[in-house]
Amino acid sequence: MRPPFIPLALAAAGLLAAATAALAADHEAGVPLTPAEAAGSWAVASKGQDLCTLTLGAAHTVKAPATCGDALPAQPTAWQPTSDGMQLMGANGQPVLAFHRWSNSLFVSHRASGVDIQLRRRGA
After folding, report:
1. Closest C-alpha among 76, 78, 85 to residue 106
2. Which end of the chain is less packed: N or C, by CB atoms within 10 Å?
3. What structural domains does the chain harbor?
4. Residue 38's closest CA among 92, 90, 104?
5. Which residues pair with 119 in a beta bridge?
6. Of 60, 62, 63, 71, nearest in space to 33 by CA
7. How many alpha carbons lie under 13 Å from residue 16 in its C-beta half-sphere?
């Protein structure tokens, strides 16, 4: 007697669907930030502590309080997408800090000092 293949096939299909959904939840890792995704409030954090809050605009603008000057190498005034995330730009058009996209709401900048800086989407 042959084992029932239909229940086995259905179980395999269910596992495949679950695995695909898990991958889709993090499908944005390593891709550029779009203007629509950027718009809103983002926390700049390091070592588990929020350092300041940036407001990114869909028109590639950045509003940053003066306190962000302590957390970042320079005061950002704009942002632009990169091949795997985004970077903050200074008033002179020079890059301030580049971030790699880890998920839909988390970007990380690996610093030579070993201290990473995170950019995390703030809750609504």
Report:
1. 85
2. N
3. 35-121 (2.40.128.10)
4. 104
5. 44, 107
6. 60
7. 6
Q: How far apart are CA 97 and CA 90, in angstroms?
A: 9
In whole angstroms, how large is the CA radius of gyration of the chain? 20
When mean pLDDT is compared over 4-8, 38-42, 113-117, the highest value belongs to 38-42
Residues 6+ apart with CB under 8 A from 3: none
Given a contact cutoff of 8 angstroms between Cβ atoms, the answer to whether 75 and 64 are in contact is yes
Q: Does residue 3 have a pLDDT over 80?
A: no
- Residue 61: pLDDT over 70: yes
Residues in the chain: 124
For 45, the 3-state DSSP assignment is strand
The structure's pTM equals: 0.74
Going by pLDDT thresholds of 50, 70 and 90, the confidence category of residue 8 is very low
